[in-house]
Amino acid sequence: MSEAMSDGDLAAHLAEVAGRILINVRASGLFSPKALGKAGDQTANQFLVHALREVRPEDGLLSEEEKDNPERLAKSRVWIVDPVDGTREYGEERSDWAVHVGMAVDGEAVLGAVALPGLDLTGSGGGTVLRSDQPRPLPDAPEKLRMVVSRTRPAKEAVAVAERLDAELVPMGSAGAKAMAVILGQADIYLHSGGQYEWDSMAPVAVAQAHGLHCSRIDGSPLIYNQEDVYLPDLLICRKEHAEQVLSLISEVQVSA
């Protein structure tokens, strides 16, 4: 059955099941917060990488929790996963953490699923999964914009741009949760400049782009995946009507710094 799944269905299924596994690991009550993060990361990673190697053996694979295999660089299709994005938030039993399962084709983020296991929008108790192949309508933007930032280390560029926009800062945990907040209408701009890796943004970018959002580096250049160096330090996700102004303000902030 899994081999007959579409890539979109597979990504969503893997993200949702990994999220359930993580909830069960946390509910065991056996781990301190620090140990819980490690146990959850490793358990979810084992599920994801074994499943992908079983059902998509010809594709490349890059995971935060797996030793990198350079063979992926020769592949057109590469799955990029983050078993627990927001390990700290997961360990603290917050809701702002995520599971990322995405696929890049020739370096472009084309498909993704982001599970938010701690955020139950339907009342089913099963968390929420946002998918690139099933976009939902975006809520209308409010008059006063909101910029989602790290709850522990807000990027200085983001804070400075928010001041110039008179935007409200919305602190939040994981990159996936922040990106999905823009889709869900909890925020309007996600600007990050504090350092990330491909697995932090690939699936969220695929989902955000499918929902009609602008996604780029903070200099406006495209986000390119499946690179030898997986460091991809900055990111802008926002509504397309705000992109030009935000990118211009980023340049102003960087010049005046």
UniProtKB/TrEMBL annotation:
It comes from the Bacteria. It comes from Sphingobium agri. Pfam families: Inositol_P. CDD domains: CysQ. This is 3'(2'),5'-bisphosphate nucleotidase CysQ.
